[in-house]
């Protein structure tokens, strides 16, 4: 048991450190080629911080643990709004622009509904459905790059060379791969040891662990006043979790649905946390969210965890 605990901790550290370096090097590479901050938040940052979810889900399904793969995505999406956005709003006021709600948030709702239909109407999420989700990801990325009008880029030219940046990306990717292997194996072990379902492990330990990059990235963005990156990262990460993580994982191997009742409950909670953002925006005259909204999100997130545990 001690060895498995060590593997769990080492795996988590490798995921956090690997995703952190992947994030920094990816952002540097993007800014070097003058990609705007909003686009970086919705694409590069979201993809980099969601890399742990992707690798853990792939590793889980290959080990015949579909529950961990699916609950990892749902739990991570819940944590991104309840924990990550909650902490961001607790420490800083964030002005929400209409484009973020009526374009990015709406798209997140659409892909969440599609994912829910795939998950709740059949006994598995098939390869064909995975291809549909992944195709939507490619289309959305093309749309974001083509329609971004934010041309504000960093004026700092002191970036590492392309060779160093690519080397860091490769090394951090390897850390993510091996970290996910350690983390998944240990999570499955503890689920069996304590008689806890893989669903609960996925929604709690795995979801929180894989959301740590989003927590760090968002808080750093908030303290640096890069608020476009912070909120864009949260919504973009949730979109990426569904379209890429579920999409790619189910293409590799169909995801079995073992308990639709529990899945329906978890998906409902995911939608509730997404609706919080829309309601906060709709009832705010200034469209500026702050500490009270953060407290509501963090409190709701805590209650949800107390219920499922």
Descriptive notes:
It is a single chain. The chain has 309 residues and is mainly alpha-helical. It has a single domain, classed as A middle domain of Talin 1. The chain is 82% helix and 3% strand. The chain has 12 helices and 4 strands. It has helices at 2-32, 37-42, 44-49, 51-62, 66-91, 98-120, 127-147, 162-194, 198-223, 227-252, 260-283, 291-308; strands at 94-95, 124-125, 255-256, 288-289. The strands form 2 sheets. The protein has a two-stranded antiparallel ribbon with strand order 1-4. A two-stranded antiparallel sheet has the order 2-3. Helix 6 (98-120) packs antiparallel against helix 11. The protein is globular. The two termini are 21 Å apart.
Key terms for this structure?
single chain, 309 residues, mainly alpha, A middle domain of Talin 1, two-stranded antiparallel ribbon, 12 helices, 3% strand
What would you say about this model in short?
By secondary structure, the protein is mainly alpha-helical. It is built from twelve helices and four strands.
Mean pLDDT: 83
What would you give as the CATH superfamily? NCX, central ion-binding region
Please count the beta strands (DSSP E, at least 2 residues each): 4
What class, by secondary structure content? mainly alpha
Biggest sheet, strands in spatial order? Answer: 1-4
Could you say which overall geometry the principal axes of the C-alpha atoms support?
globular
CATH topology-level fold name: A middle domain of Talin 1
Radius of gyration from CA coordinates: 18 Å
What is the tally of helical segments? Answer: 12
Order of helices and strands: HHHHHEHEHHHHEHEH
What top-tier CATH class fits best? Mainly Alpha
Q: Which percent range describes the beta-strand content? A: under 5%
Spans of at least 5 consecutive residues whose pLDDT stays below 50 are none
Report how far the terminal alpha carbons are from each other: 21 Å
Q: Give the proportion of residues in helices.
A: over 70%
């Amino acid at each position: 048991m001690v060895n498995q605990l060590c593997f769990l901790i080492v795996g988590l550290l490798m995921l956090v450190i690997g995703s952190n370096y992947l994030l920094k090097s990816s952002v540097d590479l993007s800014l070097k080629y003058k990609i705007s901050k909003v686009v970086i938040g919705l694409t590069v940052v979201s993809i980099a911080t969601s890399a742990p979810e992707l690798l853990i889900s792939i590793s889980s399904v290959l080990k015949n643990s579909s529950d961990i793969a699916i609950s990892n995505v749902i739990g991570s999406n819940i944590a991104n709004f309840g924990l990550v956005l909650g902490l961001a709003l607790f420490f800083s006021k964030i002005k929400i622009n209409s484009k973020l709600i009526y374009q990015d948030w709406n798209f997140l709702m659409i892909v969440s509904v599609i994912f829910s239909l795939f998950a709740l109407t059949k006994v598995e999420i098939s390869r064909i459905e995975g291809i549909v989700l992944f195709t939507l990801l490619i289309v959305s990325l093309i749309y974001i790059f083509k329609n971004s009008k934010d041309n504000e880029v960093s004026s700092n030219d002191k970036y590492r060379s392309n060779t160093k940046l690519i080397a860091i990306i490769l090394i951090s990717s390897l850390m993510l791969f091996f970290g996910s292997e350690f983390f998944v194996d240990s999570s499955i072990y503890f689920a069996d040891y304590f008689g806890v379902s893989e669903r609960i492990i996925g929604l709690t330990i795995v979801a929180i662990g894989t959301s740590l990059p989003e927590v760090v990235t968002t808080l750093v963005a908030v303290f640096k006043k890069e608020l476009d990156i912070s909120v864009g990262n949260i919504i973009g990460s949730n979109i990426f979790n569904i379209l890429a993580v579920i999409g790619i994982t189910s293409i590799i191997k169909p995801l079995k649905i073992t308990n639709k009742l529990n899945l329906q409950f978890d998906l409902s909670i995911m939608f509730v946390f997404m609706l919080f953002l829309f309601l906060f925006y709709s009832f705010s005259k200034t469209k500026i969210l702050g500490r009270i909204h953060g407290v509501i999100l963090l409190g709701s997130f805590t209650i949800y965890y107390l219920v499922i545990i």
